[in-house]
Amino acid sequence: MKARWDIFCSVVDNYGDIGVTWRLARQLVVEHACNVRLWVDDLRAFERMCPEIDVHLDEQWQEGVEVRFWPTEWRDTASADVVIAAFACQLPPEYMEAMAASARAPLWMNLDYLSAEEWVVGCHRLPSVKFKGVQKYFFFPGFRPGTGGLLREAGLLEQRQAFQQDAAAQRQFLQALGVFATEGARLISLFAYENAGLGRWLDVLSSDVRPTHLLVPEGRILGDVQRWLGVEGLVAGDVHQRDALTVQVLSFVRQEQYDRLLWCCDFNAVRGEDSFVRAQWAGRPLLWHIYRQDEDIHLDKLDAFLALYTAALSPAASAALIALWQAWNTDGDMAQAWKMLLEHWPEVNQHAQTWCLEQGLQADLATALVQFYESWI
Known about the structure:
single chain; alpha/beta; Rossmann fold; 2 domains; eight-stranded mixed β-sheet; 19% strand; globular
């Protein structure tokens, strides 16, 4: 019989949590023939990336995944063979009792946040707490050997390479989104949290000798874009130009379309976890807006990734990339940092491709989870 998997997702950051778990659920079904129930407590956030979702249904099937609404009032539900609590969310007490009452205890895992910190390797797959005899395990995605790897569907990099080598396919895709960039313009995507440093970056882009077409999917950064433009009520489809910079707002798109948007762009500014990983698979230079945490502990995660990511760069290119990321995440001087990065663009661009291929040599996250389950049983 196929293994039964329950994935619990409590939507905290609008799209990042559900973005990761939705990708994972589909991959487990398609590539590993698992029976998957995805429990989600916010179907309206889910609907943005899967428009077929009916937010009024407690149970439905989408792309081979059984989608369940995670209710406040829990009813009797038998536990699965594998139970994943995504991003340390707390399972319903009634479900935990069902796990303990099972004839065979399930494999219970906390799928943790992505981190490049060295300690992750030592904690990956270690036992955590127990609940009435049911053992919980840590499972860490990561960039280093000895971690759970990154979400990556079979054939993804080959699809991306073929798409990036097909100028007509890219043009057709962008035109379907309403994007008609000037010939030779630098194409940048911007998906970020609110950021006080955005204006300084847009200033330098607008005064550049090379035109830039900035694509901004609907999201939290729109307020800062509006302030810089001096307009109100930006909506999808709006296009504004100031000197060398064209700003265009895009509708929120499905995950597969967002992947292709990243593949089309010369540079991708992303946020959170799901888009961060997808930007790396695009093989293009990127800028990560990490989720802010109390006492700035998120900066430790940022520094750990930068140390790993820039290790193979020349000292000057590494310093330029680090300066840009730190400026973006600490309200620094984005104008000067961007100018420094452009001085090392060929090297940084080639490195993004090399990094992508190197990460692609590791087992993907879904496969690593299945392998852990198979070794556990």
